[in-house]
Specification:
It is built from 17 helices and 14 strands. By secondary structure, the protein is an alpha/beta fold. It has 3 domains: about 1-200, 3-Layer(aba) Sandwich (Rossmann fold); about 210-295, Rossmann fold; about 300-435, NAD(P)-binding Rossmann-like Domain (Rossmann fold), CATH 3.40.50.720. Strands 3-2-1-4-5-6 form a 6-stranded parallel sheet, with helices on both faces. A 6-stranded parallel sheet has the order 11-10-9-12-13-14. Strands 7-8 form a two-stranded parallel ribbon. Strand 1, helix 1 and strand 2 form a beta-alpha-beta unit. Helix 1 crosses helix 3 and helix 10 (about 265-280) packs antiparallel against helix 11 (about 285-300). About 45% of the residues are buried. Bound molecules: nicotinamide-adenine-dinucleotide. Nicotinamide-adenine-dinucleotide (NAD) binds near residues 9, 30 and 98.
């Protein structure tokens, strides 16, 4: 079976490599020439555990190809997956220009039946727009060629993307023809050997499932952040509260961790987009509006704690940051809390020393010389008046506090992920503060 995947970012590259791993012949297409050049030289532009090895092997064995032109493979493929970006427009709604551009290209160049499968996260109704665009292009060419559209939202988590794709909790596929359903069933069959977790739906429901899922997860985070902030005020410990409520099987224990705000390329934009979709229908998503507001406020919580610790005067202070990526196991800094905090620290006149195991280049690309890039976590703490833990990388979990204490100018730690033991830190002479704990 041969397929094309248009858009070779986190989703497109992981999907392409995993389909190729199952024996599918995959051509990954991207308009970014530099990215395609790198991939064609066996270099993977993003950090994702297990991805590089899989990409390189399948590329070498000829099942994975890279090109900048969809027309290189369109005549040979049965399905075209669209995994291009859908960034937020100014009003928060999803920008569909890339998705529709792919549809246009398919309509302008296809010569036989294909299914155009949208893997990008897109609002309800997008598949219909895609269909109209292809039909318009075929009409302009005065040709009649059968095609289908399908919606196959992606649920992979950055940092565990390969694992999630290879053994998914579920695969959701929205279709409107038996032919497309069969094709998608065949394509995903290798991933369903032990347990058939493929859920076929109508197309609008598939499109909605993705937004509803991300919005639910974002809601849990903001809810727990609100609870954590209240715990601090009333003298409760959010860790105990989390365990206490998570033990209720109706609630479950996952995604109940408070922190310094969610970021990344999905939750912030998908919550905004769903709010906007509702508005277009004359409906207010009040819960999600609050989820967003709470999250924006949460991104500033550590800065506020730091500022009040130093009596509101941070000028000339050196602040170390451990972790820049929006979460562990990725170099993605899109909408990362670190970016908000760095801006606040710089505006307050601080010197900022940063360390992240994989996101240093990404930070350099975004911020240039505005911060100091440390060699390692201890180097970041060198001469610092305060240390802020922002990303829960495993290597930050058990540092040598003695070394940190000797290295820092003042023993002050703000833990944005609640990974340290308050008693241990205080016994070690640190001023320690976390989220929702005393
Ligand atoms: N990143 C995630 O964890 C994740 C998870 C699930 C779903 N999604 C969704 O998947 C989609 C893609 O996300 P991503 O993080 O992979 O984005 P990304 O920005 O990493 O990659 C998108 C790629 O598409 C390319 N592109 C844009 N227009 C193109 C065109 N006309 N032809 C060929 N290539 C084109 C860009 O050059 C870029 O390389 C988004 O809708 C996102 O919401 C992302």
């Amino acid at each position: 079976m041969k397929i094309a995947i248009v858009g070779t970012g986190y989703v497109g590259l992981v999907s392409g490599a995993c389909f190729a791993e199952m024996g599918v012949e995959v051509t990954c297409v991207d308009i970014n020439e530099e990215k395609i050049k790198m991939l064609s030289e066996g270099k993977v532009p993003i950090y994702e555990p297990g991805l590089e090895e899989m990409v390189v092997r399948n590329f070498r064995e000829g099942r994975l190809k890279f090109t900048t032109r969809l027309t290189d493979c369109l005549d040979e493929v049965e399905a075209v997956f669209s995994a291009v970006g859908t960034p937020p427009d100014e009003d928060g709604s999803a920008d569909l220009s890339y998705v529709l551009q792919v549809a246009r290209e398919v309509g302008q160049n296809m010569n036989h039946y294909v299914v155009l499968v949208t893997k990008s996260t897109v609002p309800v109704g997008t598949a219909q727009k895609v269909k109209v665009v292809i039909a318009e292009e075929l009409a302009a060419r005065k040709v009649e060629i059968e095609f289908d559209v399908a919606s196959n939202p992606e649920f992979l988590k950055e940092g565990a993307a390969v694992k999630d794709f290879m053994s998914p909790d579920r695969v959701v596929v929205g279709v409107e023809s038996e032919r497309a359903r069969k094709l998608m069933q065949r394509l995903y069959a290798p991933f369903m050997m032990t347990n058939n977790r493929i859920l076929f739906t109508d197309i609008p429901s598939a499109e909605m499932i993705k937004y509803a899922a991300n919005s639910m997860l974002a809601t849990r985070i903001s809810f727990m952040n609100d609870i954590a902030n209240l715990c601090e005020l009333v003298g409760a410990d959010v860790n105990m509260v989390r365990k206490g409520i998570g033990a209720d099987t109706r609630i479950g224990s996952k995604f109940l961790y408070p922190g310094c705000g969610y970021g990344g390329s999905c939750f912030p934009k998908d919550v905004k987009a769903l709010i906007q979709t509702a508005r277009q229908q004359g409906y207010e998503m009040r819960v999600l509006q609050a989820v967003e507001e709470v999250n924006e406020r949460q991104k500033s919580v550590l800065f506020q704690k730091l500022s009040s610790h130093f009596g509101g005067d941070l000028k000339g202070k050196t602040v170390a940051l451990w972790g820049l990526a929006f979460k562990a196991e990725t170099d993605d800094m899109r909408e990362a809390t670190s970016l908000v905090i760095i801006r606040q620290l710089l505006d307050a006149g601080c010197e900022v020393r940063v360390f992240d195991p994989v996101a240093m280049n990404e930070c350099r690309r975004r911020l240039g010389d505005a911060v100091t890039y440390a060699k390692d976590m201890y180097d970041a703490a060198l001469g610092a008046d305060a240390l802020l833990l922002l990303t829960e990388w495993k290597q930050f979990r058990l540092p040598s506090w003695e070394v940190v204490r000797r290295t820092m100018n003042q023993p002050v730690v703000f833990d944005g992920r609640n990974i340290y033991d308050p008693e241990e830190l205080r016994a070690g002479g640190f001023h320690y503060s976390s989220i929702g704990r005393q």
